[in-house]
Amino acid sequence: MKALLILALVGMSPFAFADQAKTADTQPVVEQYDYSTNLDIKRVISLSTIPNVCEVVPATMTYEDHQGQVHTLQYRALGEGCRLN
Fold it and tell me: Domains of the chain by range and CATH?
């Protein structure tokens, strides 16, 4: 019984590694924003949620450029807790 279980696990492991490699290839590299960064944004895919604190927090934007490449940009943003009503 143990041998059958080990055989099943070993037989499935190449699929697990292939799936992990495929996922790693599709995730864009996170770029750090600074004032000299030239942005080419055609479409914003996602924005991270800004917490309700009154301080500078890290934020992330994933976007597509005009060549169709996907970029992930990390930047600093002022928290939502600093807004005056």
Answer: 2-82 (2.30.140.50)
Predicted structure pTM score: 0.62
Residue 49 neighbours by CB distance under 10 Å: 9
What's the CA gap between 60 and 84, in Å, rounded? 24
**Tens of pLDDT along the chain (85 residues)?**
444 444 444 454 444 444 444 445 566 689 999 999 899 999 999 999 999 999 999 999 999 999 999 999 999 999 999 876 5
